[in-house]
Write a structure and sequence with these properties.
The protein is of the alpha+beta class. It is built from 13 helices and 5 strands. It has 2 domains: 165 residues, no CATH class; 138 residues, Heat Shock Protein 90 (2-Layer Sandwich), CATH 3.30.565. It has a 5-stranded mixed β-sheet, covered by helices on one side.
């Protein structure tokens, strides 16, 4: 049945022609096999039935022509009322294709006129004349056409909702993919950037001390080994999340690991002052991780790009916010010979004068946690990163 419906929808002209022929065949058969029916009404029946071929393009005109031709045939005594099949199909089409108000108006007007004509033509016996039967069939045609239109509108609305839902799912999927890509980029930058920066700093320290201070050089190389192990461990965890999104992983670092982070800079020659104001208390996981990453990235930038001897890390606990301040007292680090282009490029990016990913990643983290961040040079030298996160 569904295949027939799809085939009919694809060939509406052929369907209407077949319908017109079928209506004429039924009406002609009834005229020719009804006792006393005049064959002279067949041309009028042909006009009423043939008009159905244009019922989709001109439904109202087809209805008027069909009713007029059928009633002309019925004006001859003995004509069977089955010749009204074509006008009834036209009435169904008007109710199916027209608007609700117009369909009801024209449909009821047609039923009233046809019924009135029969009552006037055969006043002695309305029931025998079939007036009430015609009224019932007319109302049925209107109801069937209205139901067909309502069903078509309902199906169209359901399909439109399905298309909108599909578009929304695609947009949501694209948004989540974009967010995941940014999140992964931030994690890799924070994990690897910090540890590799510490390795670079400690290697430079070891290079300076290998000649006459072997013990201190060994300590620096020990930091290199620890930093490389930490980088490999965090990278393994991150890659595990990418391979299996629901794979169990260790919780991310937070304020509980802040002392260990600060101590990792102890062999680099940078003195870090850690201050806490207000009453420390548990913080939401998103704020915990974002705070750690902001401090980590800020101190990493100090170690990489600032000739600073001292840096301050201050956490201020307010009733609704946790404020973060990381500042140093140095300027841009001197550029070693032979490495001017690379160091200048990196410094411009991560110190906020270019298009680097460090500051952008921090801002994204802070914004994702519901906070705000500012970064820029201090008056009198050095650099400052300040942010607040909700508690």
């Amino acid at each position: 049945m569904r295949a027939w419906a799809e085939a009919a929808a694809g060939h509406p002209v052929h369907v209407d022609l077949a319908l017109a022929l079928a209506a004429f065949a039924v009406s002609a058969f009834a005229v020719l096999h009804t006792s006393g029916a005049p064959p002279a009404v067949l041309p009028a029946v042909g006009v009423a039935s043939g008009a159905l071929a244009a019922r989709r393009r001109h439904p109202l005109a087809v209805l008027v022509v069909g009713v007029a031709a059928a009633e002309a045939a019925l004006a001859r005594p003995g004509t069977p009322e089955v010749v009204l099949i074509a006008p009834l199909i036209a009435l169904y089409t008007v109710a199916d294709l027209g608007g609700w108000r117009r369909s009801m108006a024209f449909g009821m007007l047609t039923v009233v006129l046809v019924t009135g004509f029969h009552l006037a033509a055969r006043p002695a016996s309305p029931l025998a004349g079939g007036a009430l039967t015609l009224a019932a069939f007319g109302a049925l045609a209107i109801a069937a056409g209205t139901a067909s239109r309502n069903r078509r509108d309902y199906v169209a609305a359901v399909e439109e909702r399905a298309r909108r839902a599909e578009r929304d799912r695609e947009l949501e999927t694209a948004r989540r993919v974009s967010e995941d890509r940014l999140r992964i980029a931030r994690e890799l930058h924070d994990v690897l950037g910090h540890q590799l920066a510490m390795i670079n700093i400690q290697v430079r320290v070891a290079e300076r001390r290998l000649t006459d201070r072997l013990d201190e050089a060994r300590v620096s190389l020990g930091y290199v080994r620890q930093a490389s192990q930490a980088a490999l461990s965090e990278l393994k965890s991150t890659v595990g999340v990418l391979r299996e999104g629901d794979a169990p992983t260790a919780p991310g670092p937070g304020l509980s690991a802040l002392d260990r982070l600060i101590s990792s800079f102890s062999g680099s020659g940078l003195r870090i002052v850690h201050e806490i104001e207000g009453e420390p208390r548990p913080v939401p996981p998103a704020t915990d991780l974002a705070t750690y990453r902001v401090i980590q990235e800020s101190l990493t930038n100090v170690g990489k790009h600032a000739a600073a001897a001292r840096a301050t890390v201050r956490l201020t606990y307010e009733p609704a916010r946790l404020r973060i301040l990381v500042e140093d007292d140095g300027g841009a680090a001197p550029i070693p010979a032979g490495r001017g282009h690379d160091r200048g490029h990196d410094r411009g990016h991560d110190r906020g004068h270019g298009r680097g990913h460090g500051l952008a990643g921090m801002r994204e983290r802070v914004a994702a946690a519901g906070g705000q961040m500012k970064a820029g040079p201090r008056e009198g030298g050095g650099y400052r990163v300040s942010a607040w996160l909700p508690l």
